[in-house]
Specification:
Structural class: alpha/beta
Strand content: 15-25%
Oligomer: single chain
Family: Belongs to the carbohydrate kinase PfkB family.
Shape: globular
CATH architecture: 3-Layer(aba) Sandwich
Protein name: Sugar kinase
Pfam families: PfkB
Helix content: 25-40%
Radius of gyration: 19 Å
GO molecular function, one term: kinase activity
CATH class: Alpha Beta
Keywords: ATP-binding, Kinase, Nucleotide-binding, Transferase
């Protein structure tokens, strides 16, 4: 049967001034158990959306950066939800509505008050069918920065080629490339991921990775700053090691920096790394020094942890100092 699809290119509601970011990947419907305990006993589920690339896009948009998101959704209610939420956040949505595949699904179980389990139902999804033809050259060429992750190449051969195509376009047009490794063990083995993502890493200007993610490409190092340095030897000028509650370490154009995490009571850590990336990239595009980029990154990451959901807690610029404010009530 011939594939049935249509492309929607309706724009977000915010003005598109200043440097623009383009990102691409799968945004899924998200079902979250509304109380702690085994999923089998959950009486109700909250319905939302989530996806690494769109999480970063929302973080950037709330910090004032125009963003275009490219992806595929199914011709179903979940697909409509994804499009509606992303447009409501002010993104320029370039969505292929795929009539031959469903929107992917993510399910969260809060097994205890401190632990989360996440399952993905995305095999054969619309998002996994992303292809090079879905990536308009003019959109990438007109951007200031392209942001990709290691999740999309794990979904399918066509999705991997879409990411590679976008990176090639960015390089050809002088567009900065940002890459978050974002390794997902449920999608592929470490050895395969390291091999498949090495070319993306080499073509990137900025790379973000956790400690174990960095070790997909380089041998272990005791000092995370040395790990960042090893990544820059492979191509990027900027390497940032995300360390969760321990903060971050970065090598930026030869400058070695560390930052502690902002201490918060964690309600939901999913999306914190994406908020961190969004904070860093927003300041990079604003021309801020590396120290400011990391300060905003750790603040944004902390905000994502204090609100349930993958992206709902992303801060605006006016809110960045809120977590360190002495007074609990602003009057």
């Amino acid at each position: 049967m011939e594939e049935q699809q249509r492309v929607k290119t309706e724009h977000g509601t915010h003005p598109a001034a200043g440097p623009r970011v383009v990102t691409l990947g799968e945004t899924m419907a998200l079902l979250t158990a509304e109380r702690v305990g085994p999923l089998a006993h959950a009486p109700s589920m909250a319905v939302g959306i989530g996806g690494a690339e769109s999480n970063v896009a929302i973080a950037l948009r709330r910090l004032g950066v125009p963003v275009t998101w490219i992806g595929r959704v199914g011709a179903d209610g979940f697909g409509e939800l994804v499009e509606r939420e992303l447009r409501a956040e002010g993104l320029d949505v370039r969505a292929v509505v795929d009539g031959a595949a469903p929107t992917g699904l993510m399910v969260k179980e809060r097994r205890t008050s401190r632990s989360l389990n996440v399952w993905y139902y995305r095999t054969g999804s619309a998002g996994s069918r992303l292809a090079p033809a879905d990536v308009p050259e003019d959109v990438v060429a007109g951007a200031s920065l392209l942001h990709v992750t290691g999740i999309t190449p794990a979904l399918s051969a066509s999705a991997a080629e879409a990411v590679a195509h976008a990176v090639r376009l960015a390089r050809a047009h002088g567009v900065t490339v940002s890459f978050d490794v974002n390794y997902r063990g449920r999608l592929w083995r470490r050895e395969r991921a390291g091999e498949a993502l090495r070319d993306v890493l080499a073509a990137s200007d900025v790379v973000f990775a956790g400690v174990e993610e960095a070790e997909l490409f380089v041998s272990p190092r005791e000092d995370p700053l040395d790990l960042a340095a090893a990544l820059t030897d492979l191509g990027p000028a900027q390497a940032v090691i995300k360390r969760g509650a321990e903060g971050c370490a970065a090598l930026v154009d030869g400058l070695r920096l560390t930052r502690e995490a902002v201490p918060v009571e964690v309600l939901d850590p999913v999306g914190a790394g994406d908020a961190f990336v969004g904070g860093y990239l927003a300041e990079l595009l604003a021309g801020a020094p590396p120290e400011t980029r990391l300060d905003t990154a750790v603040a944004a990451g902390a905000f994502a942890c204090v609100v349930p959901g993958d992206w709902e807690g992303m801060p605006t610029r006016a809110e960045l100092g809120l977590l360190t404010r002495r007074e609990d009530v602003a009057r």
